[in-house]
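Suppose a colleague, Dr. K., hands you the sequence of a protein chain of 468 amino acids and asks what its three-dimensional shape might be. Before reaching for any lab equipment, you can write down a predicted structure in token form. Begin with the sequence itself:
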Amino acid sequence: MATEISQKKHEPKWMLEYRLACAELLKTIPQPAWGPDLSGLNLDKIQYYVDPKTVRKATWQELPGDVAKIYDDLGIPEAEQSSLAGVGAQFDSEVVYHNLRETVRKKGVIYEDFDVAARGEIPELSEAENAKIANMVREHYMQLVKPDEHFYAALHGAVHSGGSFVYVPKGVEVEIPLQAYFRFNAPSAGQFEHTLIIVDEGAKLHFIEGCSAPKYNEANLHAGCVEIYVGKKALVRYSTVENWSKNMYNLNTKRAKVEAGGRLEWVSGSFGSHVTMLYPCSVLAGKGASSSYLGISLAGEGQDLDTGAKMIHLAPQTSSTIESKSIVKPGGKTTFRSLVKICAEDCKSSSNCDSLLVENPVENSQNVAKSHKTAPENVVKNTTLKAPVSDTIPSVELKGVTADVSHEARVGRISEEQLLYLQSRGLSESAARNLIVSGFAESVARELPLEYAVEMNRLVNLEIKGGL
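The predicted structure, expressed as tokens, is then:
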């Protein structure tokens, strides 16, 4: 399959050789023996390349009607017009739309389909400039995420397809976010996009990643990879809102390297999927570098969302913060895992994990029972779900240095006093619960662009209503 994908994409020889090496490596690396249960994922049934049956277009109107309608329903063209500097849209295994505002392009910013950048075939660049970009891709590709780290990193190296390449020159500020949207539309398939972002010294960028998929009865797999290079005194924010269907195994890998005085901010919303294993990592490689992670996950019946972050302090006077929130409904499980590793002096790190357990109210169960007197099996379905579960697994490693490190974790339920107060102000119990949960998620929502904050709140409310 590695050879077939490479041939379809007319890749340079080095990329094919890399794919084949990763394919060989797969034979020696076992599946993860920790974390969520992956036994329901049969890799023999996964389609590793799904052709969208259309070539890349420069306008939404040129896309096939069924494809265009999906993106239109998702609101991507409208968002592009109002609040984005550029958009790349991937459908299954290929990028089908790509555009960058001319004002941003004139600043020297490169935002392209990863495959086009790897081949050095960016239309508006000269042959020499394309050669420089192609060499940049080769020098940075899978250098932060090594294929021998785990099974799904090696699998990604063997079969990756699509994704984004971004380069922001020294001192350039991209005031309006760039976005990549990944639509997974085929059953029993995998999506393996690769995102490579290089932000030079003193530059600024906000990159948004959106993901969605329809629900099928068969398991799907998402094993993408994100690599971000943050130059000296540069600032990068990487925001993600993932709304996967609940048959998805989301096994993504994300890592950034931050040079002296630079900063990397992760903002993450994990919704949907049957299983998620996702731990964005920041390697603070230069003096005074900093990073933050702010994430939220919501798990309902049959979902196991295992998320968190890693902060690796390699240079002195570096700092990091991790803030995680999880909302868990009956039958769902969330796990927060963090690793803070400090290998230099005068470093600071703090972690905070909050979990909210949302249980079905007693009166709702009674109402269900009353309305299903002739169908007791429905009552069983609504009243015998396993209790919501939330675990916190922090890890701190100090390599013979002194550091300021703290971790705090809290787990709680919706307060009856809060419910009573809101109901006394005229809200129904359902509306009161939704308001409390939205308030719990507010710290993440306010860090997202308006359109995505609205979408996140809508997803939270829909999930909570579904459980009441």
